[in-house]
Amino acid sequence: MTRASWCRRVLALVPALLLVATGSSAQTGQPITIGGVWDLTGPSSAGNGQVARRAIELRVEQVNKAGGINGRPIHLVVEDEKGQPTEAVAAVNKLINQDKVDALVGFTTSGSGQGAMPIIERSGIPWVGGVSAAVFSTPPWAS
To answer: What is the pTM of this model?
Structure first.
């Protein structure tokens, strides 16, 4: 998959995530906090992680300039999973427990996604991301 194609796919997912996030709480004027987890310094950083981060940042900027979602600005908190499942787990735990995110987006590698998925599932926080079919074809997500 080309970088441009991957970037378009990520951008296409953002509106869905933003819609899910708005349904999670009442309109209070408080920011909607979205946690982003990508490989920003590891082996996939230049080709995918940095591109995905910038794409999401641009979309968040556009939405905020247009007044946010129902008057609520979006606040993006970004963590580096370094292309490592253990780092992804630590990043997701921080975003959920410390930053109290309303939704999550990201993962650059399938291994990172697989490592963090049990935590995300237990939290009940909506997640949108692009990973390979390996994540969904291995237990417990395989049908």
So the answer is: 0.74
